[in-house]
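Human: Note C-alpha coordinate order:
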Amino acid sequence: MAQNSFSKPLIDNAGDVLKSDWMPGVYFTADIFKTVIVEIDQLPETEETLWLRILGRDQTQERTIREVLALPTNHP
Protein backbone atom coordinates (compact mmCIF):
# COMPACT_ATOMS: atom_id res chain seq x y z
CA MET A 1 0.00 0.00 0.00
CA ALA A 2 1.15 3.56 -0.66
CA GLN A 3 2.71 5.82 1.93
CA ASN A 4 0.11 7.50 4.13
CA SER A 5 -1.38 10.61 2.58
CA PHE A 6 -2.24 12.02 5.99
CA SER A 7 0.70 12.84 8.24
CA LYS A 8 0.94 11.27 11.68
CA PRO A 9 1.34 14.67 13.44
CA LEU A 10 -1.78 15.98 11.69
CA ILE A 11 -3.76 12.90 12.71
CA ASP A 12 -2.49 13.24 16.29
CA ASN A 13 -3.39 16.94 16.41
CA ALA A 14 -6.90 16.19 15.18
CA GLY A 15 -7.40 14.03 18.27
CA ASP A 16 -7.72 10.89 16.21
CA VAL A 17 -9.38 7.81 17.57
CA LEU A 18 -9.29 4.51 15.72
CA LYS A 19 -12.34 2.44 16.59
CA SER A 20 -11.97 -1.33 16.52
CA ASP A 21 -15.40 -1.77 14.93
CA TRP A 22 -14.48 0.49 11.98
CA MET A 23 -12.22 -0.24 9.02
CA PRO A 24 -8.64 1.02 8.70
CA GLY A 25 -8.29 4.53 7.33
CA VAL A 26 -11.22 5.97 9.31
CA TYR A 27 -10.25 8.32 12.15
CA PHE A 28 -12.70 9.88 14.57
CA THR A 29 -11.90 13.30 16.00
CA ALA A 30 -12.84 14.42 19.49
CA ASP A 31 -16.57 13.95 20.10
CA ILE A 32 -17.12 17.69 20.33
CA PHE A 33 -16.31 18.08 16.60
CA LYS A 34 -18.61 15.28 15.34
CA THR A 35 -16.14 14.71 12.50
CA VAL A 36 -14.57 11.68 10.86
CA ILE A 37 -11.42 11.83 8.74
CA VAL A 38 -11.18 9.24 5.98
CA GLU A 39 -7.72 8.43 4.64
CA ILE A 40 -8.90 7.14 1.27
CA ASP A 41 -5.69 5.37 0.26
CA GLN A 42 -5.79 3.34 3.50
CA LEU A 43 -9.31 1.99 3.03
CA PRO A 44 -9.64 -1.71 2.28
CA GLU A 45 -10.36 -2.41 -1.39
CA THR A 46 -13.89 -3.69 -0.99
CA GLU A 47 -17.18 -2.95 -2.71
CA GLU A 48 -18.27 -1.03 0.40
CA THR A 49 -15.48 1.53 -0.10
CA LEU A 50 -15.67 1.76 -3.89
CA TRP A 51 -17.28 5.19 -4.19
CA LEU A 52 -15.01 6.72 -1.56
CA ARG A 53 -11.87 5.27 -3.17
CA ILE A 54 -12.78 6.74 -6.56
CA LEU A 55 -12.28 10.15 -4.90
CA GLY A 56 -8.67 9.18 -4.18
CA ARG A 57 -5.75 10.08 -6.38
CA ASP A 58 -2.93 8.47 -8.34
CA GLN A 59 -2.78 4.66 -8.07
CA THR A 60 -5.71 4.47 -5.65
CA GLN A 61 -8.01 6.20 -8.10
CA GLU A 62 -6.62 4.32 -11.12
CA ARG A 63 -7.20 0.92 -9.49
CA THR A 64 -10.70 1.95 -8.45
CA ILE A 65 -11.63 3.18 -11.93
CA ARG A 66 -10.51 -0.17 -13.37
CA GLU A 67 -12.64 -1.88 -10.71
CA VAL A 68 -15.70 0.20 -11.65
CA LEU A 69 -15.21 -0.45 -15.36
CA ALA A 70 -15.00 -4.20 -14.68
CA LEU A 71 -18.41 -4.25 -12.97
CA PRO A 72 -21.25 -5.85 -14.91
CA THR A 73 -23.43 -3.32 -16.75
CA ASN A 74 -26.43 -4.32 -14.63
CA HIS A 75 -24.60 -3.81 -11.34
CA PRO A 76 -26.55 -1.52 -9.01
User: Anything to note?
Assistant: The chain has three helices and two strands. The radius of gyration is 14 Å. The longest strand covers residues 26-28.
